[in-house]
């Protein structure tokens, strides 16, 4: 699989940056996810007031390999170090949620079912 199977888009909504991820996150495409999250973290860290939260919307992810899981954990660590909230949105029955369940990351990362829930989340 190649990185062409993954797209990311980032937009701001209120005081949150939302990184929408669509497709397969595997070894070849994980650097694209990492770059999108790193860019959002840098923007949030540089902001004086807003945004101070990042929402990673993975509801459209159809496959999530260990490289993608590592990118999420690293982003969460970077956000915590900078005082930025990091919330991952996963479809309730989606493959990305299953990957986090299997690895135990559902108890490590802040996870919601919808972007609306993530936007309402207060750290």
UniProtKB/TrEMBL annotation:
Molecular function, one GO term: anti-sigma factor antagonist activity
Pfam families: STAS
STAS domain boundaries: 6-122
InterPro entries referenced in this protein's UniProt entry, alphabetically: Anti-sigma_ant, STAS_dom, STAS_dom_sf
Coiled coil region boundaries: none
Family the entry assigns: Belongs to the anti-sigma-factor antagonist family.
Descriptive protein name: Anti-sigma factor antagonist
């Amino acid at each position: 699989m190649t990185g062409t199977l993954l797209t990311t888009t980032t937009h701001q909504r209120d005081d949150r940056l939302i990184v929408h991820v669509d497709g397969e996150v595997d070894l070849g495409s994980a650097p694209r996810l990492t770059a999108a999250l790193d860019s959002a973290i840098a923007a949030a860290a540089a902001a004086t007031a807003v945004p101070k939260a990042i929402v990673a919307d993975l509801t459209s992810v159809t496959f999530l390999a260990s490289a993608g899981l590592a990118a999420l954990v690293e982003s969460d660590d970077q956000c915590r170090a900078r005082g930025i909230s990091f919330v991952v949105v996963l479809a309730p029955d989606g493959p990305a949620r299953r990957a986090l369940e299997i690895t135990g990351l559902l108890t490590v990362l802040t996870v919601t079912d919808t972007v609306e829930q993530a936007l309402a989340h207060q750290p």
